[in-house]
Write a structure and sequence with these properties.
It is built from 14 helices and 13 strands. With 403 residues, it is an alpha/beta fold. The chain has 2 domains: 138 residues, Spore Coat Polysaccharide Biosynthesis Protein SpsA, Chain A; 220 residues, Spore Coat Polysaccharide Biosynthesis Protein SpsA, Chain A (Alpha-Beta Complex). A hairpin with a 4-residue loop joins strand 10 and strand 11. The longest helix is centred in the first third of the chain and has 11 residues. The radius of gyration is 25 Å and the shape is elongated. The relative contact order is 0.10. The model has no long low-confidence stretch (mean pLDDT 89).
Length: 403
């Protein structure tokens, strides 16, 4: 049970919920009525009309059915993945939705008051109700609610259900994320964006490039426990993003690779669109890249159309593109002796090996412009870097296009 610091549990509140849940193991989450109190803790003590008996259809239409103070089974909380910060201040309603997808049936267990809710203008929920803070799209990153696969245990009625098993299914795309010390806390948004994909044909490999090598233990609930589907790899050369990416690609099981930096994140149809583009392509001589959203401004940025001559002079798109693992193997991965602009160099190697790029004219990921320490260092040394990289390929003759 989670009780906010400005609310109060009534003396018999816990027993009103625990007793029926002990008697009926099919109830995964139980709640009762609440009474409103003011800033001084005064109120009538009488229950209001809300919350009402749980209506699953209404909840998945973004009408929250459950108060923040309720009783849930511990195993369901962890199986669902706990709270997600990016949905605050609707993080409780979003969690209730995911608990329903892992088989937790909510129930109004009593019409008596279980806790007293303090109504005052300083709460996050009050700011949302007053229009000061926009309500987050708390169903926006749940695949099953947005056209994705429905978990087998879901309580949503009348749906075709599936049971994707990330540990066993062969993925279409392996997503590889290197993480340095400056991006440890940003990783959660990156991971959640992969989990939020409407298409489940992916695997996520996170490469620990931090100084202490304990990335998977980070957080109140360690990353390893919160996200058991992730494959964790230690970078063989610490503080070397090229080595980290290569280490992840080496163990990737999918036919196609995508390198996603820890401070960026995917939009929810990235895998769906990219996987279909790959499957519909008759040749494995292609790489697919897309437009992106600039953060924090929120503007859409258009990638440049593929052109080998222009590519030899500058990067045309970000490193978050999809290409065959066979291509990574052919060009021997990223150059681990380059500490900056290694992604542009990698794209040049692919192009000279005969691979061509196809632009997807839609933003499919978000690129943060305010968190890149290496990006700023690259800009400061851009003249020198440009000369060093272009000099490497002056005498190289491009191979014939692969298709």
């Amino acid at each position: 049970m989670f009780l906010d610091a400005d609310d109060r549990l009534v003396p018999e509140g816990l027993e009103l919920l625990a007793k029926p849940m002990r008697a009926d193991r099919s109830i995964g989450l139980g709640y009762g009525k609440l009474a409103i109190i003011d800033g001084d803790g005064e109120g009538s003590g009488k229950p209001g009309q809300w919350p009402e008996p749980f209506d699953v259809t209404r909840h998945y239409q973004k009408q929250n059915q459950i108060p923040s103070c309720c009783l849930m089974r511990r195993e369901l909380f962890f199986r669902a993945g706990g709270y997600r910060q990016h949905t605050c201040p609707a993080e409780d309603a979003e969690l209730w939705a995911r608990i329903g997808l892992v088989g937790g049936s909510p129930s109004l267990l009593t019409n008596k008051v279980v806790y007293e809710y303090r109504a005052h203008g300083n709460s996050l929920s009050a700011h949302v109700r007053g229009g000061g803070t926009p309500e987050p799209d708390w169903l926006g990153w749940i695949p099953a609610v947005n056209g994705g696969h429905m978990p087998f245990a879901s309580i949503i009625p009348g749906t075709d259900k599936s049971h994707p098993v990330l540990d066993y299914d062969i993925p279409a795309i392996s997503i590889i994320t290197p993480v340095g010390d400056s991006h440890v806390d940003l990783l959660v948004d990156c991971i959640e964006s992969v989990l939020g994909q409407v298409d489940p044909r992916w695997e996520h490999i996170v490469v620990d490039d931090t100084e202490d090598g304990r990335l998977s233990e980070h957080g109140g609930i360690p990353y390893r426990e919160r996200y058991p589907h992730i494959k964790w790899v230690r970078s063989p050369r610490v503080h070397n993003v090229s080595a980290a990416r290569n280490a992840g690609a080496k163990i990737a099981r999918a036919r196609w690779l995508c390198f996603l930096d820890a401070d960026d994140y995917l939009l929810r149809d990235y895998i769906s669109i990219m996987a279909e583009s790959c499957l519909q392509c008759s040749s494995e001589g292609k790489l697919f890249y897309s437009d992106w959203i600039e953060r924090p401004e929120g503007k859409a940025h258009q990638a440049e159309i593929w052109n080998l001559r222009r590519l030899m002079n500058r990067a045309l798109f970000a490193v978050t593109f999809v290409h065959p693992k066979a291509a990574w193997e052919l060009v021997e991965g990223f150059d681990e002796e380059l500490s900056l602009w290694e992604d542009w160099d990698y794209t040049i190697k692919l192009a000279l090996a005969g691979y061509t790029g196809v632009r997807i004219k839609k933003p499919l990921f978000a690129y943060r412009y305010d968190t890149g320490v290496r990006r700023e260092e690259s800009l400061e040394n851009s003249d020198w870097l440009h000369k060093e990289i272009t000099k490497k390929y002056e005498a190289v003759i491009p191979k014939k296009r692969r298709g």
